């Protein structure tokens, strides 16, 4: 069912309905700003915040960006609690520019992973050093729920990665706080049976989340590419770093990425025709591009997935949890590893679907059960940071590397996480914190202007953010 999304014309550079705030995102196609609706000032909606995504003019003569058009068309058709909500579209014809106004989400998975990684690095203040299991499980359930809805409606996202998965903050109200929202439909496509090649617009899916069939030259995208990417996200939430962190080889139009494939083979072992009967028909496998088939001896004979994830979690956990044990709130049941391995199966035809994953015993028969608020578990909230804004320092002049991240302290509505972080609340204070989630002074809200920690950027894929 089409939802009514008002499309409004404007002559202004910024849609006049909104008060422009800080820059929150900088993606491939444009900038994203925080904004408040002017008309809501003084009303009960006065705290309602929006994310305004700006699309500049497409390539010369192209007019309005086709990516934007695709995003609007799809989001008018799709309505689901786990998909971002498009509120309105604002077109400036004279400049061929376009603004999409979305409901604002305080968090995205990229920032949440970074927050926990930074907590890990400041270990003395945060003894767990890992994302609590209930958060991971609820995020994954909601992500798969949104994905299953999209796939049932014949839409493939094609660019799932942590920064494209948002999570609503406290200002969104009690019904929406902690709700996961799949965002960024710029590369999403409707697919039909029989499948026609969908590779006309070149490379899709950021390399670390790209499935082996795409890397090996498959021209058909199926829902399975999204499930693979979601599996990579699952592992990353556990490890706080990407599972398959390959080096991208820049060569236009070529999906073959040897290093990325090798990273996958080192964890899962090299694929076999027995596991994946279509393997021989994969273009690069068949042609043995860069000797891809001949290095079997350097890879493990069996998948090492569980060991790799567990070892990484153990490394992140503090030394006083030694002896092969993780803190109880971070331990994953065997079912989690089983589901993960089903999501990262080589053969896209047997890889678990999003719909099947929701019925996996990990969700249906293991405690804790997934929750609609990913931060809440057993009456306790897991604190999250407020957003880092991206500001360009006037004294550092050139290029995207000048962007610095400024902690969103003053601008955001006071919420639990901020209060907890600002006050340095402990489990015994009036604000309850999950065990081991005592905030560090490094995240105190008063420290505006705090730069990202050195090394944080190393986790960003090439050409990303
Ligand atoms: N609704 C939103 N609320 C808050 N932040 C958002 C929202 N939409 C996007 N962002 C932020 O902006 C970034 C870029 O937006 P995205 O839609 O992914 O654009 P791009 O296609 O340029 O990657 C996201 O990674 C996210 O951090
Ligand atoms: Mg994006």
TrEMBL record:
**Binding-site list for ATP:** 53
User: Which reaction(s) are listed as its catalytic activity?
Assistant: L-threonyl-[protein] + ATP = O-phospho-L-threonyl-[protein] + ADP + H(+); [DNA-directed RNA polymerase] + ATP = phospho-[DNA-directed RNA polymerase] + ADP + H(+); L-seryl-[protein] + ATP = O-phospho-L-seryl-[protein] + ADP + H(+)
Record keyword Nucleotide-binding present? yes
The UniProt entry, under Pfam families, shows: Pkinase (PF00069)
Alphabetical list of SUPFAM superfamilies matching this protein = Protein kinase-like (PK-like)
Q: Which SMART domains match?
A: S_TKc
Q: Which GO terms describe its molecular function?
A: ATP binding; cyclin-dependent protein serine/threonine kinase activity; RNA polymerase II CTD heptapeptide repeat kinase activity
Q: Which GO terms describe its cellular component?
A: mediator complex
Q: Which UniProt keywords apply?
A: ATP-binding, Kinase, Nucleotide-binding, Serine/threonine-protein kinase, Transferase
The record places domain Protein kinase at: 18-363
The record's region (Disordered) falls at 427-465
**Matching InterPro entries, A to Z?**
CDK, Kinase-like_dom_sf, Prot_kinase_dom, Protein_kinase_ATP_BS, Ser/Thr_kinase_AS
Q: Which family does it belong to?
A: Belongs to the protein kinase superfamily. CMGC Ser/Thr protein kinase family. CDC2/CDKX subfamily.
Name recorded for this polypeptide: Protein kinase domain-containing protein
Q: Which organism is it from?
A: Chlamydomonas eustigma
């Amino acid at each position: 069912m089409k939802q009514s999304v008002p499309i409004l014309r404007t002559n202004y550079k910024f849609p006049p309905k909104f008060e422009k705030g800080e820059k929150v995102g900088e993606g491939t196609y444009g900038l994203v700003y925080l904004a408040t609706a002017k008309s809501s000032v003084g009303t009960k909606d006065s705290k309602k915040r929006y994310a305004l995504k700006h699309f500049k003019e497409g390539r010369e003569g192209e007019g309005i960006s086709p990516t934007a058009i695709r995003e609007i068309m799809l989001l008018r058709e799709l309505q689901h609690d786990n998909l971002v909500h498009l509120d309105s579209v604002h077109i400036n014809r004279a400049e061929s520019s376009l603004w999409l106004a979305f409901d604002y989400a305080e968090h995205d998975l990229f920032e949440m992973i970074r927050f926990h990684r930074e907590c890990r690095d400041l270990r003395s203040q945060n003894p767990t050093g890992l994302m609590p299991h209930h958060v991971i499980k609820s995020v994954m359930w909601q992500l798969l729920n949104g994905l299953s809805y999209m796939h049932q409606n014949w839409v493939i996202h094609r660019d799932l990665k942590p920064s494209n998965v948002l999570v609503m903050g406290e200002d969104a109200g009690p019904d929406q706080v902690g709700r996961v929202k799949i965002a960024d439909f710029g590369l999403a496509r409707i697919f039909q049976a029989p499948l026609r090649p969908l590779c006309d617009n070149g490379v899709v899916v950021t390399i670390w989340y790209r499935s082996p069939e795409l890397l090996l030259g498959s021209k058909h995208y199926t829902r399975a590419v999204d499930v693979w990417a979601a599996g990579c996200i699952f592992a990353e939430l556990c490890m706080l770093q990407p599972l398959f962190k390959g080096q991208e080889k820049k060569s236009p139009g070529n999906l073959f990425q040897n290093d990325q494939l090798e990273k996958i083979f080192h964890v899962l072992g090299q694929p076999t025709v027995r596991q994946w009967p279509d393997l021989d028909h994969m273009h690069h496998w068949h042609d043995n591009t860069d000797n891809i088939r001949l290095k079997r001896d350097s890879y493990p004979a069996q998948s090492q997935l569980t060991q790799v994830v567990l070892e990484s979690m153990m490394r992140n956990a503090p030394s006083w949890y030694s002896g092969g044990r993780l803190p109880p709130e971070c331990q994953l049941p065997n079912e989690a590893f089983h589901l993960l391995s089903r999501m990262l199966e080589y053969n896209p035809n047997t890889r678990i679907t999003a719909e099947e994953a929701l019925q996996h015993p990990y969700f249906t028969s293991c405690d804790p059960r997934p929750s609609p608020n990913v931060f809440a578990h057993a009456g306790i909230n897991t604190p999250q940071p407020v957003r880092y804004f991206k500001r360009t320092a006037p004294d550092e002049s050139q290029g995207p590397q000048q962007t610095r991240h400024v902690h969103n302290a003053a601008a955001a509505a006071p919420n639990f996480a901020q209060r907890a972080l600002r006050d340095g609340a402990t489990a015994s204070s009036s604000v309850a914190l999950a065990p081991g989630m005592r905030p560090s002074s490094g995240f105190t809200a008063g420290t505006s202007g705090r730069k990202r920690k050195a090394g944080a950027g190393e986790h960003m894929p090439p050409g990303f953010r």
